[in-house]
Structure formats: structure tokens, C-alpha cells
Amino acid sequence: xxxxxxxxxxxxxxxxxxxxxxxxxxxxxxxxxxxxxxxxxxxxxxxxxxxxxxxxxxxxxxxxxxxxxxxxxxxxxxxxxxxxxxxxxxxxxxxxxxxxxxxxxxxxxxxxxxxxxxxxxxxxxxxxxxxxxxxxxxxxxxxxxxxxxxxxxxxxxxxxxxxxxxxxxxxxxxxxxxxxxxxxxxxxxxxxxxxxxxxxxxxxxxxxxxxxxxxxxxxxxxxxxxxxxxxxxxxxxxxxxxxxxxxxxxxxxxxxxxxxxxxxxxxxxxxxxxxxxxxxxxxxxxxxxxxxxxxxxxxxxxxxxxxxxxxxxxxxxxxxxxxxxxxxxxxxxxxxxxxxxxxxxxxxxxxxxxxxxxxxxxxxxxxxxxxxxxxxxxxxxxxxxxxxxxxxxxxxxxxxxxxxxxxxxxxxxxxxxxxxxxxxxxxxxxxxxxxxxxxxxxxxxxxxxxxxxxxxxxxxxxxxxxxxxxxxxxxxxxxxxxxxxxxxxxxxxxxxxxxxxxxxxxxxxxxxxxxxxxxxxxxxxxxxxxxxxxxxxxxxxxxxxxxxxxxxxxxxxxxxxxxxxxxxxxxxxxxxxxxxxxxxxxxxxxxxxxxxxxxxxxxxxxxxxxxxxxxxxxxxxxxxxxxxxxxxxxxxxxxxxxxxxxxxxxxxxxxxxxxxxxxxxxxxxxxxxxxxxxxxxxxxxxxxxxxxxxxxxxxxxxxxxxxxxxxxxxxxxxxxxxxxxxxxxxxxxxxxxxxxxxxxxxxxxxxxxxxxxxxxxxxxxxxxxxxxxxxxxxxxxxxxxxxxxxxxxxxxxxxxxxxxxxxxxxxxxxxxxxxxxxxxxxxxxxxxxxxxxxxxxxxxxxxxxxxxxxxxxxxxxxxxxxxxxxxxxxxxxxxxxxxxxxxxxxxxxxxxxxxxxxxxxxxxxxxxxxxxxxxxxxxxxxxxxxxxxxxxxxxxxxxxxxxxxxxxxxxxxxxxxxxxxxxxxxxxxxxxxxxxxxxx
Length: 984
Known about the structure:
Elements: H1 53-57, H2 62-73, E1 79-83, E2 91-102, E3 108-118, E4 127-131, H3 142-150, E5 154-158, H4 178-190, E6 197-199, E7 202-203, E8 205-210, H5 212-223, E9 227-233, H6 239-243, H7 251-260, H8 269-281, H9 286-294, E10 308-313, H10 321-333, E11 338-343, H11 354-368, E12 381-389, E13 396-403, E14 414-416, E15 423-427, H12 443-446, H13 453-457, E16 472-476, E17 484-488, E18 491-498, E19 502-512, E20 527-532, E21 538-543, E22 547-551, E23 556-562, E24 575-581, E25 585-587, E26 594-595, H14 608-622, E27 640-647, E28 658-665, E29 670-674, H15 681-688, E30 696-701, E31 704-705, E32 716-719, H16 731-742, H17 751-758, H18 773-785, E33 791-795, H19 803-817, E34 822-826, H20 830-836, E35 839-844, E36 847-853, H21 854-859, E37 863-868, H22 874-881, E38 886-892, E39 895-900, H23 903-924, H24 933-937, H25 944-958, E40 963-968, H26 972-979
Parallel strand pairs: 4-5, 4-8, 8-9, 9-10, 10-11, 11-12, 29-34, 29-35, 32-33, 33-34
Antiparallel strand pairs: 1-2, 2-3, 3-5, 6-7, 12-13, 13-26, 14-25, 15-24, 16-23, 17-22, 18-21, 18-24, 19-20, 19-23, 27-28, 27-30, 30-31, 35-36, 37-39, 37-40, 38-39
């Protein structure tokens, strides 16, 4: 539920074995009539601008009234409306109010709904219910509903009781109220002719929603056996635990709920009474916990047995990661598929990653509602991490870390010793002034539009936390000697002694920079605990906030136990607390979770390749239907295999950029990719790096198919001409800064190895502005080598270098491949390619001309240089090219470069040449100009190259070509020209 946001995207869920007033479980599910109240539809386009329902849901209380006003405008039921869109097919929408019967207080309840479909009306399709956030309405999830409709679902949205145009009182997802409504919505879907049924009255249906709508999705799966898949987002598992954590009243969020719902009169009477009672007492009672727990998904957790995609916010002091952890453990314990995704945002603000999350939800439903077993539903666990701030727009750069299993909140625990003597501090009278950990429900707005929120910005070294002197105890660790990633909930055991029977402590762990500067509270989160019976002293196990946070080398951890906090109620009576530690801080590290390489911030340097790969990866996540083929285990050790690759750009329908290209690259090779301008080299590299998709064929790197954002691309390093560096930093500092931006562990950089290969020596300590062009190029190569990628791609690495620098660059490539890795280099400097490459791929007009070892292509007898005593006209060159056994002939320095045909063709041409020679001798009585008829007659006894040269010589003399010499040609430049027919 969305404390203060009117538009949190909500999705819907139906309950298992739901109980409805007036009907016993198991009775005819159509026993209640769902009446339709016709309304008129305005002719105008009523859609909101696409700002993202998540963000709408987190805009603040002032938007609640605007949202309510919008519902009046959107009242339009019983009539179909075609929604304009740039995407086909068009979406049809039907608005109607459904009669839900009479509530417990005798009021008639009507639920306002919208139904969306697209495409062939006669086609059967699965259905999806999409619920909204607390304080919002069905209009907040319209964009997502339309998108799902276009993807082949029948989508139903609705405004929950007491919200939008729906009547009834707010019951906080009462099983007899809101959950029963969802059950009836599923009944309604079962009657729709376009909805796919598993059996009579049982539609194939999924439910999704955020916050309030996320909870009802879980409840629906627990109360209604017809639900087939769910995707709850930023929601609660046990509402009592969320609002009364460790028996401490979360007063600020609770008050916001009351306000967002429109005041006490809008809620069920018992809820309003409960709030008044707890708010006055300052702490929950057993009856309050029982009431909220009974309306929570945890009450039916043992019955939730459907595939669940759980999305939870890291910047969320309302529904913390502990809530998602509890639901994941329980549902997985029921043997249902579960994936967990920790996003950057939450109820306290931050980036809600709307497009990515909606894409993943769509893929989840494709798999479990459409039964598409080939769809990629994503990793078992994913967490979004912040890599810094992009100075061009002030937005935080995000990247994902994944694991093949959900690690929970206590995986890979490390013990961090803390120092500090027993400390005594006060609980001030009236609990004022309170310490400030964050601004619950307000931090998102305070964060501005940069995708931050105060909670998100805490990962960037920005925070608002405040602890008053004399009101807290602090225990510190030593500075860590290397970067430490905390993923989960740290714990510590403390001994608490109080002069009051009612003791409340607030635990939090700070990240403290060197010298005590930059004291930051990760995600602005705090964990409260009520300690009873502490007058004589009591040991307490403290579970601190679950976070994903990186502690940098040289930073230390500081555990603070405070007596007050702004967001919570604490005892009003003054008291003194004494705290000492019984253990060190146990920190979870989730060692199986790996961070993907991140794009570089624009202010660091411009690296088109990395940025483009990330952009392509995001596009693939948005296009959730794209699935990668299974790995080919036979190619697991092959760096690159390209098979039948073709690409034709939209504006070049009559010409392929790449056509039927196939070649293979092995470990340890330095491969030169050659071809004239327009040959398709750049297009091939772009497809290899996942920047564009081929029209046909495939590329496999170590057996895995390349797609935009494919994980195997992390094994590929690339250098693109024009890499930039911060000129005032040294070479080493530039490389260290780049690697930090990727978010990968420092030890994985292999910085020293890369630098040794690059051979920069002492220059690494100098500012980059003092570097020559050659040194900058080598530094860029070293950057591409960081992490020692198994496949290194270099595009024109010698551009702008002088001959000595080119020679050094040649050595860099050779040394890198000597370690069993592979290098692909694209260059126009053929002499360098000849000296540095072991293998070549020659392309022309999008096709493969020849591939193989350099010595075979350059030094084979298939290419002959014919020295000429004088120049010859073009028609005569053409006659030479048309001779039997000759594939091509082009002018070259000093004569003609002639490429012979294949061995089979050459043998056929030999008999023709012998016949012509015999006729020539009979007519003239000589072979002419040094040609020996006896020598020609022994062609059959010579090797193929020698005999071919002899036959060619006879033909050249017959054509009166002024031949001076004939011999094998061994220069790549001329061999290249011969291969491409002299078109370079």
C-alpha cells in the first residue's frame, strides 16, 4: 500500500477459497450477480502522459486530491473505446461498475473497473488483473494495462473499495471485502468469451500490483485456487510487522495512511478505532496486531503455491526488504517458483525502474500464463546497484547484480569486530527532540527528480541523518582493508540495562569515511526494538536494516543505538539506558551475487561501445519476448563462431551489409578482420558486440548466443577509437576510476597484468595530459584489457601512431594473445596486420572472400606476381584475367598480381594450356621469349604451383605480354587487392 502516493501502479489479485458474505465457500461462484451500470464515454483522449505509474504513486499527499478529481472525469462504463497508439494492435477499453453486494454495515458496494483487450476478438487469451496503490485508483495503472493488452492478455483494472469511483469503506484488504471483490472479478473474467479457461469457471489468470495492489495479489493467490501466477511489488507480507516492527509503532507512516485514505470516516470502523487506540498509547496492543495480521498475506502463506515474481524496494522504510524475504521463503517452501528483484526505488523515492520491471512482469506471465517455456524470466535474484552520478543530467547510474539463487538476508556472513566501552545515554522526556534517520514518505520528494530521493542518494554519500548528543551510543569498527559489499541484514548481540520497564532502541549502521567525514546511513533505514525486562539487564539480538551497500576501502562501520527516531513512537517518560556489546557485527555479503559491468559516466570518458551495449541490454529487457538460444556446450571453449550471418538495413532493401558470413576464431589467435570500406566489417563488429541484431544467422561467444545485453559479453573487452581520459589524473588513476565505475571487485581487474601487457612503465604515475598519442592509445588498450577478457576487440588501434609506436602496439597485441586469449583487430594498415596477426578474415561487399592463417593467404602459390618489362593496356589485363586457371588479375607495383583458381580448376586449365601450347609451337616453331617447349611439356611432373606458373607463362607469351619474371607473391597488401578484385 502506498502511504502518500495516489498513483502507485497497482495490480490485482484474487484469493483462494475466498469467503464472501452471504455465500459459503464452494457454492456456485456465479451466485452473486455483477450488475453493469452504463455510463457515457467522452470523445476526448483521456490518457495521462506516460510518466510511469510507480513515480505517480510516489509524488506525495497533495496528489491524492488531484487523482480523486481525475476519477470523475474518467467515469465511463459499459461502452467500448479504441485507444489511439503508435503500436499495433489498437487497444479496446470497456469501463463499467460491478455490483459487489452489501457490505457489513449495510452499504451497497460498487467497484469501478476497466477492461482492456487488443487484436483478434475471437482469440482466447490469458487474463491479468492489475491492482493500484493505496490512495490511488484504476487510472494509475492504465498504461501498464494497455501494454499487457497489446501483448496478448485480457486485462482488468479496478479501483479498490473507498478509492476512485468505487464505493464502500477501506478495509485494508479485508478477506471479506477487497479480497472477496477480486474473487468476483475473476468470476467475471471467467464469463468473457475471449478469456482462456483451464476449466469451466476457471480462467487462466495472473495478478500483479504494487504496494496495496501487491498485497491483494498475494492474498488473492492464498484465497482463490484459480490464480495461476502473481507478481507483487513493493508490498507487505505481514502488515502488523510492517507498521509495528518489534512492537514499536511506526507512527509517521500510519498517520500518512489515514490521511491518504481520506480520514477515519473512509475506513472500516474497527480500523479507525484501532488506529486511535495505538496512536494514543504510543505502542500496539495484541488486538491491533491480530487485526492487521489477519488481513495480511502471511495469514494464508501456506496456501500461496503459484509462481511468484517478488519485486521489493531498497529505499523503503514502509515495507522493508525483510517483508519480501519472508514472502520469498514461505512461497518457495510451498514448492512454487520464486524470483526476487530488489529495485533501486521504494516508498521513500528513488528510481522505480518502471520499464524494466514491467518488462520482467510481462515475461513472468508469458512463462506461467501463456506456457512459453522458452521465455527468459530473469535470474532467481537481482539487485540494482548505484554506480555514481552522471554529471550531465544528475541521474544516478544503475546496474544489476544477479545470482542463480536467492541468497536471503544472512548469506556469506563476516564478523566485523566493534570497539567501545559500555555507554549510558538518555531517553528525553516526551521523546523529543527525536533523532532523524530519514524522512519517511517525504524523502522521495526531497530527493528531487534526479531519480534519487534521500534514501537512494545515501549510496552516493549524501544523507540527512542526525543523532543528538547524549541520546545514543556508538560502536566503531576499524577501517576495512578492501571494498566490502553488504547484502542483507547485519546482526549484533547487545546487553541492555534500563531504569524503565519500557525501553525502545533504534539500531542503525553508518558508513563512515576516512577521518570521520561523509557519515552516511545506507538507504536511510533504522531498525527499532522494544526491550522488556531490562531493569536488571538483558541480552538482546538486534537485527539491523537489510540493505545492499558497498563499504569502500578505508571506510569503517559505526553501529549506533539511539533512544528516539522521527518516524516512530518511543516512550514519553524520561529514562537512562546503558548498552554494551556481546558480539561483533555480523555482516552478510551474498558471495554468489555478481555485479554486471556498468556503462561509464559521460564525465569520465566517452566509450561508445560500453554505453551502447548497456543501452541494447535495456532494450532487450523492455522487449521481454526476446529469448536467447540454449548454450552450445560443444563451443564452450571456442571464443567466436559466426554462422550464416546476414544483415540488411531498412533503407537498403536491395543490398545486404553482411550476407551469409561464417567463420570461426580459436583461442590464442590474433585475427585480422580486413575489407574495403563498405565490406561489412563495422556491421559485423556491431552485431558481435550485441549493439544491433542480425536478420539471420547467429553469433556465439564461448558457445552462448549473442543478444543485446547478453551476460557472456562480460567476457569481451573492446577498444573503440576516441576513448577519453581525465587529463589531470594519472594513467593508473584513470584506469582505477573506470574499474570502480563497473562495480566489480578490484581484484577482478587484474590491473597489474593489463598494464604489464600494455607496457606503459613509469608513465602510469604521470598525468594523462603529458602522454603522447601512442601512450594514450596503449592506455586505452589497457583499459579494454581490464579484467583480462577472453576475447579482445580492437578497432583501428594504431590510428595516429608513428612507426615506433605502431611497433609497440603490435607487441601489445601479440603479448595479450600469448596467454591463451583471443584478439580481433580491424585495421587498414595491412603491413601491420601481416606482422601481428596469425589469421585473417577478408570480406568484400558483405561476403566472406577468404579466411585462414596469414601465411596461407599471403605466401601461398595461389597468388603470383608477374614482373613486366613495359606497361600493358587494360584490354590485355582483362585477357590475362580471363585465362583458364586464373581467378583474377590486377595491376600492382612492378607488374600484375594474378590469383590462380582452385586446384581442381587449375588441373582442368592445365590440359587446355597444353593443347594451346602445342598448337602454338606447330604454327610458329617456337614458344617465344625464353619459353622452353620441353619445360612446358613436363608440367604434369611439377608441383601445382610451379606447373601453374609455367602454364601461365606460356599463356602470357602467347598474348605477347612483355614478361620479365613470374614468382609467388608474399605481400598482404597485394594479396588483399587480389582477393577483393582491386576494389579497395
